[in-house]
Amino acid sequence: MARAVRALRGMPNPRLTGLGGGLFCAAVMLVLGFLDQLLFGASLTVYGVLFLPVCLLTALWVRRGDLLTAPVVVPIAFAVGLLTVAESGEGVGGRLMGLVTALATEAGLALRRHPGRRVDGAGAPGADAAPAVGPPVRPVPRVPPGAVRLPRRRCGPGEGGSRAVTAGSAPGP
Known about the structure:
Blueprint: H1 2-10, H2 18-40, H3 44-61, H4 70-85, H5 91-106, E1 148-149, E2 164-165
């Protein structure tokens, strides 16, 4: 135990500003991107795994007052380093398309589905949805075709809140 404590005390303890943390993270990710391209043939999986310790170091080395900048600069640094690893085609358009494709496939952590949050694809048919969280919703009463909807009235507990009158029926009390 004492050996581990001594080893941790021997580690550098820099305190970076928000800008310094962003520059550190971007520079390290750029270098790791070049190394990944050189050693592993531009593997996006290796790049993503190498990104995790850089995130940890950035979060540990940023000053406490600038800690809120870390969630902003770290994804930017991910994209900067991804420029070296992403597949690229002819010209600027091909490189941009490779970068966008790599971001869409590798940066899925920010876009993951949260359990308990309803995601229904904006009414898309057949879209799966997580169960809704909260009190159950009372079903809306169906009004028969040709009925006239009367204005809402205040009701006591257990009474309906909407009335419909069809041709030939008298309104209720």
